[in-house]
Amino acid sequence: MDKELELILEELIKDFKNMKEVAAISFAGSSTSKRNDSLSDIDIDIFTYSDISVELREKIISKYAEYKEVGNDYWGQGDEFILKNKNIPIDIAYFGISWIEDIVNNILANYNASVGYSTCFWYNIKNSDIIFDREGRFAKLKEISNCKYPVKLKKNIIEKNYPLLKNNISSYYNQISKAISRSDINSINHRLAGFMASYFDIIFAINEIPHPGEKRLINIIKNTCTKIPKNFEEDINNILKSAGNLDKELLVKLDSLIDSLDDII
Fold it and tell me: For 49-79, how does the pLDDT look when each residue is reduced to its tens digit (9 = 90+)?
């Protein structure tokens, strides 16, 4: 990061940390895990005691933005903008500090699993860099996140996600089979995305690694996991290439992927 960019970010962060609503600020995303590339943006997470109004967010961001989208709240509160004279995208996400504490507690103390992406918030906290922490609450969260992977959590993630691959009547596999019979390519795409979300959730749980999110998962698994299904990359590529063909051969490829997963569970 060049010096000029550092100074701009310092001023941006200063504007936010002076607000009474702000409990903590961190850098997050691919830059903190050293996986950023030329297409990556700069991710800033702001943890709040109460919501910051869109008007206040707009006022701050307008000082730094060449182009801005304030109030991009489709997946939670967030703002995105391009830095003036830098052509660098900035992505700011806002989370309630009490909310994120509850999320981390549900994962690491209550061992709650989700359908896909079970431990993404744990990963995000664990790999973030603290910029500002008014009361030390975020530092405490990071301390909690630097724990050994709970055995009970691993078990719960596998038990919640594995039946959805093929075992249950309503499994992704069975839904994909019906969609092929109906020539419903949109449904195939939808169910296949869910299948992959649960599949990757299981692999990261087996390897006792917090889930890093939705990007570049094949490379991350190859570089960080020791228990990897045989031919998993080839199988996944074949599945995705077959998805638009409305052919039962897709089910054969899914069977191969599941069988290889069984070998490491």
Answer: 999 999 999 999 999 999 999 999 898 999 9
Amino acid at 227: K
Dihedral of the alpha carbons of 139, 107, 45, 207, in degrees to the nearest 10:
100
**What is the Cα–Cα distance from 165 to 157, expressed in whole angstroms?**
13
Which residue type does 3 have? K
Report residue 208 as tokens.
């006792």
Q: Quick one: pLDDT at residue 256?
A: 96
- For 124, how many CA atoms within 13 A lie in the half-sphere containing its CB? 25
3-state helix, strand, coil in the chain (%, to 5): 50, 15, 30
d(CA 265, CA 116): 17
In this predicted model, what pLDDT tens digit does every residue of 12-29 receive, in sequence order?
999 999 999 999 999 997
Q: Identify whether residues 29 and 80 lie together within a single domain.
A: yes
Using alpha carbons only, what angle is made at residue 78 by residues 74 and 50, rounded to the nearest 5 degrees?
110
Q: At which of 123, 145, 167 does a domain end?
A: 145
Paired tokens of 248: 């039962």
Residue-range definition of the domain harbouring residue 35: 3-145
d(CA 261, CA 39): 32
